C-alpha cells in the first residue's frame, strides 16, 4: 500500500504548490481538522470576531439607536446584497439579504405565481424539484395552497416535459443538496420561459462554489443561504434576487414595513419601495447580518471562476484518491463524474454511512451523513487544499478497511 | 425657577433610594446619557459581548458544525422561548423564538383564520387595529388576501362593535406604539372569543414592561419583538406564542423543515412537529439568537410585577416633572393618565417635535420622534432611574424655553 499512497501525497503537494487560491486559507480560522462540511456550515473567516465585537460593544452598546443611521444598519440588507450579487452573476440593485431561505422561498414562489398571472392567464400549477431539500418542497406546497395552485413535484430532468400553459412557477435547485448534481440552469430557465412561466432558483449549494450567471441567463427570482460557501455563520440571513425587469411587478406575500416606499412615514397604506428592497420585510437581524458582511471580505480579489476551477480539481482528485484507497464495492459514487453536472461536493453511497462518518470525524475528517446511506463531503476552494483531500481519502480508506462495528 | 427644580430633584433622589430595581442598572452597559429609547432598542446587557464572542470564536470557529448539537444551537428557538414565556405569563412549551415580528404576524394571522374555519364556518373577515404599527396592517392585508378574507381596520375601542359571525381573526396591539395606550387584553380577548373568532396579540410594546398574562386570559396567539424591553439587540429575533390547547391544530403558512416532526429525516412529505416548535421555519440565526439568550440573564430574580410598579412610578413622575418644567400650552400629553390604560412610555404632542428631539439628543436625552408631531419617551425600569427622569424633563423644559429654530 506504500507505493500509491506516496504517489498521491506527492501529487497533492504539487497541486497545492500550483494553487493560486492557496493563500486565501489564511483568511480563515482553521485547525488541523480536514473540514469538508463547508457545504453545511462554512468555516469562520478571521475578520469576523473583531467586527462582531465592534458591532456589539460600540455600535449597539455606545451608539445604540443612532447606529441605525450612523453605523449603516438600516441599509445593510441591500448593501450586503450588492456584495453577494457579483458572486451569483448579478448586477447591483437586485439582491437583498434577510430572513431564512424558507421564508425567501415563500416570497419568491408566491411572487412568481402572481407575476405569471399578471397577463390574466389562468395558471394553477407550481412545478418543483421532487428531490429538493425538503423545506423547499414544504414551502412550495404552502405557496400552492395560498395561491390556489396545485404542486407538481417532478425530478429535475423531467421538468421540461411537464411544463405547459397551466404552469405558473417552477422551483429548482441549482445543485442537489444530497447528490451534488449540478442542474442545467440556462436550459431549464429557457424551458420555463418558453411556456410563459416564472422560474425560481435555489442557490444554497452553488453560490460561492461556482458561477451562477443570474443576469446572463435571464433568471427571474433566486434565493439562497449564506452560511455554506459564503461562510456567513450559523443561520446567517438568506438572500432574495429579483431581476431588475420584474421588480416593479414583484408582489410579495410579506409586505413588511422595511419594504415600504416610505418606511418612517408610518402610513397605514402599503406602497412598495422600488428596486430590490421590495424583498425586505421586518427589522433586519443586525448581528448576524453584519457578521456576514465581514465574512464576505474573504472574497476580495478572488474570482468565482478560479474557485470553480479549483473546486473541480479538488473533487476530481478526491474521486481519484478514493478509488485508489477504498476497497472495491464498498462505496458508490453518487455525484456525477461529468464536470458540467457536478457541484462542489462528492456524495458517496455507503451502507453503514452513519457509522463511517462518526469514525471519520473521530479521526479529524469532518463531512456529514445524510440519511439513510450517504457520506457527503463538501469542498470549499477558499480553504480546502489538495493535501486535505489526500488525507481525507486516506483516512476514509483506513476506516472502511476496519471491521464494521455492529 | 430654583424652588421647584430642587424639590423635584430631591424627590428623585428619594425615589431612587427606595427603588428595589436600582441595582439592576449595573447589569447594563450605560453612560451618562439619559436613554429613553429602550422602547425602540434596548441598551446592551453587560454579559452579551463575552457570550457573543464565545459563540463566534469557539462555537462557530472551533466546534463548527458540531455546535448544532454540542452548543445547543438546534434547540435554541424553544429554549429561549421558554426564557421569555414567564415574562409574558406563559407556561413552558408555548413560545418559540425566530424570524421577524412581521413574519410571525403572517404565521399567526393565517394560522388564526385557518383555526377559525376548522368548524366549517364561512368566516371571511380579519379585524385589525387601525392605529397599529404599520407593518402589522400591511401583513394583515396580505394574510387577508392569501386566505380570501377582507381586512377591516378599526380603532381598538370599536373592535367589540364590529365583531360577528364573519370574523375569523383579530389582530390587536397590547400597547400602541405611538400613544403608549395600553389596551384591555382580557376584555378584548373575551369579546373575540364570544363570536368564535381567534385573537392574535402583538406584544412588542408590552413584553418586558408589564404583565401580559397570556395563559391566564386565554389568548390564542401572540407575537412580539425582543429588541425593545427585552434588550435582545438590533433586529434580534421575534417570538410566536401558540396556546397549548390549539397547538395540534395550528397550521402555519411557513411550514419549514425546522418545524417538521422529523427534520433530519429529509422526508418529502410535511408532518408538523408537536408543540410550540410548530412555529419554527428555517435555520435559526444563531448569533442574534444567542445574544438574546445572554441578554435575558438580566431578568434573573426580577419580577415583572416589580417592573410594572416602577414603570408606572417613572411615567407618573415624568408627567409631574414635565408639568412643572414646561411652559404651558407647548405640549399635549398623548398617553393616557389612567394606569390601566398606560404602557411604559410617555408620548407628547409637540408642533416642532422633530427639531425638539434633535436638541434633546444633543444634550444627552435620547427619546425618539414619531412623524409628524410626537415626542416619544420610553421608560425601561431595569435601567432608567428617577434622577434620569427628572433630568430629562428639566432638559426638555430648557429646550422648549429656547427660541425655535426656523
Automatic annotation (TrEMBL), chains A, B:
What catalytic activity does the UniProt entry give for this protein?
3-hydroxy-L-kynurenine + H2O = 3-hydroxyanthranilate + L-alanine + H(+); L-kynurenine + H2O = anthranilate + L-alanine + H(+)
Q: Which UniProt keywords apply?
A: Hydrolase, Pyridine nucleotide biosynthesis, Pyridoxal phosphate
Record's keyword annotation contains Zinc: no
Matching entries from Gene3D superfamilies are given as: Aspartate Aminotransferase, domain 1, Type I PLP-dependent aspartate aminotransferase-like (Major domain)
Top-level class of the enzyme under EC nomenclature: hydrolase
Recorded E.C. number(s)? 3.7.1.3
Annotated pathway: Amino-acid degradation; L-kynurenine degradation; L-alanine and anthranilate from L-kynurenine: step 1/1; Cofactor biosynthesis; NAD(+) biosynthesis; quinolinate from L-kynurenine: step 2/3
Name the InterPro entries on file: Kynureninase, PyrdxlP-dep_Trfase, PyrdxlP-dep_Trfase_major, PyrdxlP-dep_Trfase_small
Q: Choose one Gene Ontology CC annotation of this protein and give it.
A: cytoplasm
Positions carrying N6-(pyridoxal phosphate)lysine: 228
Q: Name one GO biological process term.
A: quinolinate biosynthetic process
Q: Which Pfam families match?
A: KYNU_C
* Residues bound to pyridoxal 5'-phosphate: 101-102, 133-136, 202, 205, 227, 257, 283
- Which GO molecular function annotation, any one, does this entry have? pyridoxal phosphate binding
Superkingdom, taxonomy of origin = Bacteria
CC cofactor: pyridoxal 5'-phosphate
Summarize the subunit comment.
Homodimer.
Q: What does this protein do?
A: Catalyzes the cleavage of L-kynurenine (L-Kyn) and L-3-hydroxykynurenine (L-3OHKyn) into anthranilic acid (AA) and 3-hydroxyanthranilic acid (3-OHAA), respectively.
Q: Which PANTHER family match?
A: KYNURENINASE
Listed HAMAP family: Kynureninase
Family named by the database record: Belongs to the kynureninase family.
The name under which this protein is listed is Kynureninase
Source species, please?
Answer: Streptomyces lincolnensis
State the gene name recorded for this protein: kynU
Amino acid at each position: 500500500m506504500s507505493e500509491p499512497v506516496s504517489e498521491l501525497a506527492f501529487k497533492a503537494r504539487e497541486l497545492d504548490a500550483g494553487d493560486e487560491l492557496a493563500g486565501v486559507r489564511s483568511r480563515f480560522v482553521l485547525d488541523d481538522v480536514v473540514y469538508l462540511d463547508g457545504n453545511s456550515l462554512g468555516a469562520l473567516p478571521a475578520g469576523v470576531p473583531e467586527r462582531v465585537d465592534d458591532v456589539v460593544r460600540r455600535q449597539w452598546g455606545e451608539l445604540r439607536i443612532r447606529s441605525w443611521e450612523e453605523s449603516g444598519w438600516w441599509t445593510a440588507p441591500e448593501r450586503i446584497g450588492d456584495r453577494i450579487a457579483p458572486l451569483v452573476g448579478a448586477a447591483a440593485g437586485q439582491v437583498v439579504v434577510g430572513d431564512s431561505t424558507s421564508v425567501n422561498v415563500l416570497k419568491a414562489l408566491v411572487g412568481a405565481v402572481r407575476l405569471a398571472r399578471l397577463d390574466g392567464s389562468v395558471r394553477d400549477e407550481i412545478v418543483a424539484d421532487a428531490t429538493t431539500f425538503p423545506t423547499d418542497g414544504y414551502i412550495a406546497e404552502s405557496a400552492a395552497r395560498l395561491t390556489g395552485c396545485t404542486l407538481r413535484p417532478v425530478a429535475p430532468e423531467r421538468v421540461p416535459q411537464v411544463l405547459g400553459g397551466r404552469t405558473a412557477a417552477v422551483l429548482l435547485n441549482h445543485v442537489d443538496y444530497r447528490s451534488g448534481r449540478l442542474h442545467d440552469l440556462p436550459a431549464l430557465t429557457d424551458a420555463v420561459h418558453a411556456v410563459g412561466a416564472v422560474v425560481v432558483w435555489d442557490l444554497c449549494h452553488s453560490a460561492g462554489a461556482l458561477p451562477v450567471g443570474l443576469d446572463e441567463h435571464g433568471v427571474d427570482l433566486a434565493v439562497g443561504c449564506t452560511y455554506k460557501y459564503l461562510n456567513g455563520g450559523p443561520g446567517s440571513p438568506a438572500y432574495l434576487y429579483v431581476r431588475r425587469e420584474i421588480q416593479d411587478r414583484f408582489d410579495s406575500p410579506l409586505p413588511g414595513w422595511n419594504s415600504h416606499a416610505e418606511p418612517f412615514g408610518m402610513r397605514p397604506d402599503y406602497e412598495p419601495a422600488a428596486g430590490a428592497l421590495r424583498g425586505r420585510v421586518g427589522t433586519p437581524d443586525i448581528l448576524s447580518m453584519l457578521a456576514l458582511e465581514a465574512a464576505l471580505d474573504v472574497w476580495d480579489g478572488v474570482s468565482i471562476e478560479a474557485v470553480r476551477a479549483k473546486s473541480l480539481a479538488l473533487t476530481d482528485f478526491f474521486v481519484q484518491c478514493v478509488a485508489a484507497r477504498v476497497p472495491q464495492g464498498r462505496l458508490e459514487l453518487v455525484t456525477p463524474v461529468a464536470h458540467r453536472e457536478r457541484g462542489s461536493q462528492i456524495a458517496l453511497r455507503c451502507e453503514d454511512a452513519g457509522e463511517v462518518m462518526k469514525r471519520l470525524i473521530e479521526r479529524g475528517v469532518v463531512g456529514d451523513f445524510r440519511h439513510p446511506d450517504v457520506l457527503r463531503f463538501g469542498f470549499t476552494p477558499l480553504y480546502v487544499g489538495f493535501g486535505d483531500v489526500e488525507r481525507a481519502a486516506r483516512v476514509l480508506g483506513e476506516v472502511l478497511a476496519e471491521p464494521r462495528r455492529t
